[in-house]
Design brief:
Blueprint (H helix, E strand, L loop, with lengths): L3 E10 L2 E11 L4 E5 L6 H8 L7 E6 L8 E4 L4 H4 L5 H6 L3 H4 L7 H13 L15 H14 L4 E5 L7 H18 L2 E5 L3 H7 L2 E5 L3 E6 H4 L3 H11 L2
Parallel strand pairs: 3-7, 3-8, 5-6, 6-7
Antiparallel strand pairs: 1-2, 1-4, 8-9
Helix pairs in contact: 5-6
């Protein structure tokens, strides 16, 4: 069974339908990029996949493999998050909170997972540094390591490169691609960067307040909507 299945799903915000006609499946190991213009329903869909809101029509089914706390989420950063007063290790380790249950302390396995994911993102050297003192790219690596601590199945990333310079952006994309290929963790990423989306993603979901396209990236780039969107970015 697919990890996530949307069947004719629609989501609303403050009583207004924001995105509709969602029919797609996400399988284990997929790398799905959700693209579309501002206001097209991407953020609303993310809330739906996180089960923060329920569909007003249709259904979203979560596969048995994907447990209740098996989605590692990296949200868009806010000023408050950038100024979070904690060490890098504390931020990464907090990704294990949902797995801790009623235990008052982190387990040896929790701490090992934090160490493993800091090593994976090459941030062990930042372990004792204050999160708020890091550069934007370093902070995103820390948050990605935190998200990985929460899951062995799926990462849900909402504009993870927003505000980063081009060099750091490409480095983070390469890190995410490597994680997907090496660990087979499913990636669902919201992105405005259509060029990088088609470079790295196995699948594309294009929204325009409804589902304009879902399928393999190689098919998307041959469609009218894919060609238009790629050409539009090239003209910017």
């Amino acid at each position: 069974m697919a990890l996530i299945t949307c069947q004719n799903a629609s989501f609303a915000y403050e009583g207004r339908v924001v995105v509709s006609g969602l029919d797609f499946e996400v399988e284990g190991g997929d790398y799905l990029c959700v693209v579309g213009e501002n206001g097209s329903g991407k953020s609303t869909l993310i809330k739906g996949l996180l089960r923060l809101i329920q569909p007003v029509k249709g259904r979203v089914a979560i596969g048995d493999e994907l447990g209740e706390n098996e989605i590692g989420y990296l949200p868009q950063q806010t000023i408050v998050q950038k100024d979070f007063p904690a060490s890098v290790y504390e931020v990464v380790l907090s990704g294990r909170l949902n797995r801790r249950g009623i235990r008052p302390f982190y387990s040896r396995a929790d701490k090992a997972a934090a160490d493993e994911n800091m090593e994976r993102l090459d941030i062990q050297g930042l372990r004792k540094r204050s999160y708020m003192e890091l550069s934007g790219g370093q902070q995103q690596r820390v948050l990605l390591a935190r998200a990985l601590c929460a899951t062995q199945k799926m990462l849900l990333l909402d504009e993870p490169v927003a505000g980063l310079d081009p060099v750091v952006t490409q480095d983070l994309y390469q890190q995410i691609d490597r994680i997907n290929k090496e660990t087979r963790i499913t990636v669902i990423m919201v992105s405005h960067d259509i060029r990088s989306s088609v470079k790295y993603a196995s699948h594309i979901l294009h929204l325009k307040n409804s589902q304009e396209f879902f399928g393999a990236t190689e098919d998307y780039v041959r469609t009218a909507v894919g060609k238009w969107f790629l050409r539009g970015e090239a003209d910017v």
